[in-house]
Write a structure and sequence with these properties.
Blueprint: H1 9-18, E1 23-29, H2 35-45, E2 48-59, E3 62-69, H3 76-102, H4 109-113, H5 124-133, H6 140-148, H7 163-172, E4 176-179, H8 193-201, E5 206-210, H9 216-229, E6 232-235, H10 255-264
Parallel strand pairs: 1-2, 4-5, 5-6
Antiparallel strand pairs: 2-3, 3-4
Amino acid sequence: TSSDGTQSPSELVETAAAAGLDVLAITDHDTVGGWEEATAAALRTGMTLVRGIEISCRQDGRSVHLLGYLTDPVASGLMAELARARKSRVTRLRLMVGKLAAAGIPLTYAEVQAQVAPGATPGRPHIADALVANGTVAHRDEAFATWLHDRSEFYVDHYAPHPAHAVRLVREAGGVAVIAHPFTRSQGRAVPDRLVEELAEVGLAGVEVDHPDHGDEERRRGEQLARSLGLLVTGSSDYHGSGKGNRLGQHTTHPEVLREIEDRSSGRTEVVRP
């Protein structure tokens, strides 16, 4: 609930422990607001916790998500950029709600606000949740498929940094940058290889290859690209609670890769171990 999930950070950690996982990464969109609560829950449950963020970026009209693992939560450059993005998201939501309401879709901005937890990063999933809450649709997926997708007439863009700039900020913050699910088409066009190559030149460390939205072809492509560029191969379930059908732990990162991520970080933010 610090960004677009449906569980609190502590509930997320408890769900991971109940699923038999021993390591969990928390990477909310454009915020580290869930770290403190997740850390306390990890220490309580015996979970190893990798703290990070997922930065929403944009390049040539394409949505690109960048994971920053073990970043310094007070790094001025990165925190300022994330604050700018969150402020832009609020304006964007107001505009989208206005367009939806003008088209006769029953929705108010107050209903959307009610779905955003205090201090959370606002996003389209909160519009979807408001539409579910007022009975207009049955599930988030229906809202996205009908009105909230990137090519919808109701879509409004928001500020997002270029991914190369975000990679530099993650590195300045002592973190390790990994491009998230680059070949999924669920959020628009897939990321071209040339962009991954450009990001590798400015410090990208890894490619998220094992992901629910990647099929066999995409995984082979990711592995070949990572190998050719000397990048780490990571995996994640991209779990969002009931807001997305992904099963927690269905894709994971190899322990040796996690150790490499730790080695490459500055150490300003450490992995939380019980």
